[in-house]
């Protein structure tokens, strides 16, 4: 029923229904943004696309970081804790994510669900109820390399969850991706690690269709 793919892998192997996992941090940011009821929420890895959409609506809230166009500044970095108290209701949100957004760019023709520890039970319930076969894609580090947290999340999802919160912390505490948050830097606040590794922070699944993200 489920197949797990880690980076790097052949996209041609994917079937129609895909769960993409990006624990740190895009899936969690997507959950936090979605619960705030934006007018429209768009995620991509394409810097030019973000800039073009912003120029059409300069009141848009932007999330992410520039790697090429240093003249374009984002409202917030890709951080769930930094947008936690931000009012996004009825606003257009443009989110740049290299890993999750990059995967969405490649899977425009697929039925895509976004998952992290934050909504893993809701996603598990949704895909079980769908009575379909699902491919589970671990976005990995920058969408290029495997990482421990996405793999572990995928394994729990494939096993229909029943995860233990303390076990997640113990298993991932030495992960390279998690360690970078221990110094509590502005771009990598320690709170992000705690939020992103929390089980079932929200109770809904999230769909992405042609880069537009909505609650199911």
Short structural description:
With 216 residues, this protein is an alpha/beta fold. It is built from eight helices and nine strands.
CATH architecture: Alpha-Beta Complex
- What does the overall shape look like? globular
Please give the CATH class: Alpha Beta
Secondary-structure element string: EEHEHEEHEHEHHHHEE
CATH topology: putative 2-phosphosulfolactate phosphatase
The CATH homologous superfamily is termed ComB-like
State the helical fraction.
25-40%
Calculate the terminal CA-CA distance, rounded to whole Å.
21 Å
Structural class by SSE content: alpha/beta
- Compute the CA-based radius of gyration: 16 Å
Task: Please give a handful of descriptors for the protein shown.
single chain, 216 residues, alpha/beta, putative 2-phosphosulfolactate phosphatase, six-stranded mixed beta sheet, three-stranded parallel beta sheet, 8 helices, 9 strands
């Amino acid at each position: 029923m489920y197949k797990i793919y880690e980076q790097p892998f052949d996209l041609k192997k994917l079937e129609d229904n895909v769960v993409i996992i990006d624990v740190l941090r895009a899936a969690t940011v997507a959950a936090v943004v979605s619960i705030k009821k934006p007018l429209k929420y768009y995620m991509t890895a394409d810097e030019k696309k973000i800039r073009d959409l912003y120029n059409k609506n300069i009141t848009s809230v932007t999330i992410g970081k520039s790697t090429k166009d240093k003249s374009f500044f984002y409202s917030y970095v890709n951080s769930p804790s930094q947008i936690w108290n931000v009012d996004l209701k009825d606003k257009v949100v443009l989110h740049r994510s290299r890993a999750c957004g990059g995967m969405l760019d490649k899977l425009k023709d697929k039925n895509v669900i976004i998952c992290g520890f934050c909504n893993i039970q809701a996603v598990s319930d949704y895909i079980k109820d769908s009575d379909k076969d699902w491919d589970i894609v671990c976005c990995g580090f920058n969408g290029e390399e495997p990482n421990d947290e996405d793999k572990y999340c995928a394994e729990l999802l494939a096993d229909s969850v029943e995860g233990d919160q303390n076990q997640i912390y113990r298993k991932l505490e030495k992960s390279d991706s998690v360690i970078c948050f221990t110094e509590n830097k502005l771009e990598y606040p320690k709170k992000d690690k705690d939020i992103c590794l929390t089980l079932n922070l929200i109770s809904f699944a999230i769909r992405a269709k042609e880069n537009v993200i909505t609650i199911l």
